[in-house]
Design brief:
The chain is an all-alpha fold. About 80% of the residues lie in helices and about 0% in strands.
């Protein structure tokens, strides 16, 4: 890592920040090297606080829950890739809407969902990134819900499919917020 030469975050958290400020007041204006050193220490303190916010690690049971949620993302994403027609019918889209263009869009959406599932696995492996990854997944579900609301508001004749998709988005987004709150 590019930051390996920097002091350990735990060591910096134990060091009082005010001692540095007192030293600067005794010797006058800080040099660029001192300012750079201070910004590195602030960065490490922020990383330490983020690790504390996340409890330092994703607990084993929470990791299993997140892995399960990631698997669900992968399965939902794989459905339009391998069984676009079946998925379309299960959600309740009219047969006339099952076109090559609609399948292409569904497959692109599926790849996005699979990427979000892999990102969830990465969050379990890298606990410091868990909080932003969980919120990112929740934000994607909120975006899905906003997109789904358009055909419902405009009454475009796909109410059953839109309501089922909205239910997936609400349940998924809520689950990501709950997992985030448990960090």
């Amino acid at each position: 890592s590019i930051l390996e030469f920097l002091p350990d975050a735990n060591e910096l958290a134990r060091r009082p920040a005010s001692a540095e400020c007192r030293a600067w007041s005794l010797v006058g204006r800080p040099t660029q090297a001192q300012i750079l050193g201070r910004s590195r220490r602030i960065f490490h303190r922020l990383r330490f606080v983020q690790a504390q916010r996340a409890g330092g690690e994703v607990t084993a049971w929470l990791g299993y829950v997140v892995i399960g949620m990631g698997v669900m993302r992968l399965l939902i994403g794989a459905a339009p890739l391998f069984a676009a027609g079946v998925t379309s019918r299960l959600l309740g889209f009219p047969a006339a809407h099952d076109t090559p263009t609609a399948r292409l869009m569904a497959r692109m959406f599926g790849v996005r969902d699979m990427g979000l599932g892999v990102l969830a696995f990465y969050a379990v492996a890298q606990p410091a990134l868990a909080a932003p990854v969980f919120l990112f997944n929740a934000a994607m579900d909120a975006g899905d819900l906003a997109s789904i609301s358009v055909p419902l508001i405009k009454r475009q004749g796909i109410d059953r499919a839109a309501w089922l998709s909205a239910a997936f988005a609400v349940m998924g987004g809520t689950a990501w917020i709950v997992v985030w709150s448990l960090l």
